[in-house]
Structure formats: C-alpha cells, structure tokens
Amino acid sequence: MTFVTQPSPLRRVPAKTARVDVLSRDALERCPRWHDAFSSQRKDHRYYEVVEDTVPGFDYRYFVLSDDVGVVRAVEPFFLLDQDLLAGVTGWAKVAIDIVRRPWPHFMVVRTLMVGCAAGEGHLDEGDQFSRSDQARHLAAAVVDHAAELGARLIVLKEFPTKYRDELACFLHAGYTRVPSLPMTRLNIDYPNFEVYMISALSRRTRRDFRLKWRATARAPAIELSVVRDVTPIIDEIYPLYLQVYERSKLHFEKLTKEYFSSVGRLMPDKVRFFVWRQCGRIVAFAFCMVHGDEIHAEYVGFDYSIAIDLHLYHYAVRDMISWAMARGYKWFCSSALNYDPKYHFRHWLEPLDLYVRHTSTFVNAMLKRLLPFVEPTRYDKTLRRFPNYREMWDSPAPAEPAEKRLA
Question: Tell me, what's the pLDDT at 250?
Fold first, then answer.
C-alpha cells in the first residue's frame, strides 16, 4: 500500500513529498534506517522489537516514510486492536454501559489503528532529513487511507508527550481531536542524598508521615535490595508480583509476559535496571526501570500484597530507587501512569501525554468529538487536579508555585 502526500498550499509547508508505506517486522529488518530509529529515546528500536515479540494481543506494523528516490527516512510503529472506547468510565456511567452491553457486547468497541508504542508513550522518529513536522504532516495525510485498507475505523495517536504539540497540530487540522491520556510524572532528584531532598522538597507533615511508614518497615525482618539487568533466573518469582499489581488496577491495556521482562533485560542491558527486594531470602517486590541520560524511569512494579500494605513497600521501594539514582548522578526520577496520590506527596510534577483521535467516517467523527471529553481517561481521577501543573494536560501551563505553598 502506497500513498504519496503533497503539501497543502494553505499551510505554507516546505515543498516536499513522501511515500508512506506499511511494512511488517520481517520487511523492516532489511531497512537500514530502522536500526537507528528512536536512538535518542530510552526506548529505541530494540524495545519495539521486544514488545512485538513478547506482548500478545496486538497486530504490529510499521509506517515507513521514503523520499523521492525511495530511501527510507523515518519509521513510525503502529498496531491494530479492538479498542473499548469506554474502558476508563467508572461509577454510574459504567453501570449503564454494562446494561447496554448485555444484549450488545461490542457496543463502543471499535477496530483501531494506534500509532505509537503498545507498552509505553509514543514518539516521532528523529528521521534522516525529514523533520518531525514533515513526518507528522505526511502521516496525517496518509493514515486515514491506510486505516481503511487495514479495516480499522478508529485512529489513535497513543500517548505522545506535549513536546510534540506543535508538530502534531496538523492532525487537528485533519479532523483529529486531542484529549489527555493518563500522564507520567517527573521528580527532581538533583540532591546529594535522600535526606537533603526530604528537607528541601517536602513539608514537615509529609516527612513525618513517611518516616512513620519506614519505621513500620524497619520493625519487620530486614529487607535487602539488589539491582540486576537480567531477571531470567528469577522470572518465576517476580512475575506473580507483577500480576498482583496488574489485577488490582482498575484500568488495563497491555498485559506483559514473562518473556517481556526476560527479553528486555537481555537485549537492552545498557538501558535496563531491575530493583529486587528480598525479605528472609524471599522476593517481596521488584521494579523494572530504564535509564537514559540523567533520568531514571520506573516503568513497572510488582509487590507481594500479603505484606506490601502493612510494610508500606511502595514508599520503601521509591526511597531505595531514588537513593540509588542520586548516588549515581541521575537528576530526574520519572514514573509511569496511575497511583498518583503518593506521587503527589513525593512532589512529582505531571508529564502530560496526549491522545489524538479520529474516526474514519466524517459523520461518526463529528459525534466522537463531542463524546471524547466525557470518556477520556483522566476525567475520573480526582487526584490529578491537585498537581500544580494539572492545566498543562489541556493546554495552559500552571503558574509557578510559591515555595511556601509547596512546603505547606
């Protein structure tokens, strides 16, 4: 399938053309550009290969953007799935939906083409010669036709950071609606040690609360931390802990496998760190993290909930990870979505992520634009509104917060 995109004279874009093709993984392996794709991100092309090989439930494909002589200049992964548009709805609305779905099980479940990563946020490839604006413009012009060819009725750009808003504005002109996804978070850890961070960044009340939690942990048998890059030898011990966290979550998208955790460490040892906590020789918690530049990203965690709540293992684990990162010169501790209340008290800031959504039918798309603000996933999480930069999820940056308010 090939579509040639021409610049719109109304947008005053450079006079460039690009061919947008769809390739499978096997065909992509022969493309030299792929092996440099996303090299500036923590999740480079190796990560996308791990996800395709180990996370089932999706049909993985790749857009390739070629120049006039057929040289591939950029790659953008995507995948196909049957998406429940109402997955994030709770309360009385969910009760009503459940009633409707008794006779109509697939109500608001749509075959969807998602641009981005099935297990993480999306990025534009920093392609060879094509700017990110060029890539976005060509994709916006071609994706609808490709979706129709592939049998998808809905198109979603999945969880793109707000730094891409200028480049992705062309999707809004093409009929897409932008709504916030559940954001990641970021914490400044540029301190000499955890104690200095506590005194400098947290209120007296929060410090007291955290110390009471850690005293409770200290009264139990000692918990020991180890940091490894490959968890294959212990995968049967840590994977059930991941499942405990997964099953407690109200929102599900990807379900990771044992093979995912084993493969990502073996194939990306420069990027991956696993934190493993043992009590009396038994693993009681783990965290899968990725390092990149001066950042450490906590991606997925697992806990033994027979003791995790009483021993405050989440707070204990976060303290250990931040302390480890500080000792090695990392400046930022970043975290994936959900579990926002403790992150708020640790003084994280939101890292907003955007969804760009469009139906291939013009008529249905007009109705979808009105519906999306009521079903977007952040609407029902009240904790998010407490973060000082909450408004950035929609557009307007929040004003700087006074120091005295931060420490209140």
Answer: 79
For residues 287 and 300, give the distance between their C-alpha atoms in angstroms, rounded to a whole number.
Answer: 6
Question: Could you give the C-alpha distances from 141 to 74, 117, 272, 288, 397, in angstroms and in order?
Answer: 16, 21, 36, 37, 30
* CATH number listed for the domain at residues 2-182+353-393: 3.40.630.30
Segments making up each domain of the chain, as ranges: 2-182+353-393, 190-330
pLDDT on residue 216: 93
User: Of all helices (H) and strands (E), which one includes residue 46?
Assistant: helix 45-54
Q: Which CATH number fits domain 190-330: 3.40.630.30, 3.30.70.3550, 3.40.50.300, 1.10.1040.10?
A: 3.40.630.30
User: How far, in Å, CA of 396 to CA of 60, rounded?
Assistant: 35
Rounded to the nearest angstrom, the gap between the alpha carbon of residue 266 and the centroid of all alpha carbons in its chain is 22
Alpha-carbon gap, residue 405 to 408, rounded angstroms: 5
Q: What DSSP element (H or E) covers 264?
A: helix 258-267
CA distance 210 to 145: 53
Stretches where the chain sits below pLDDT 50 are 1-15, 396-408
Return the pLDDT at 241: 98
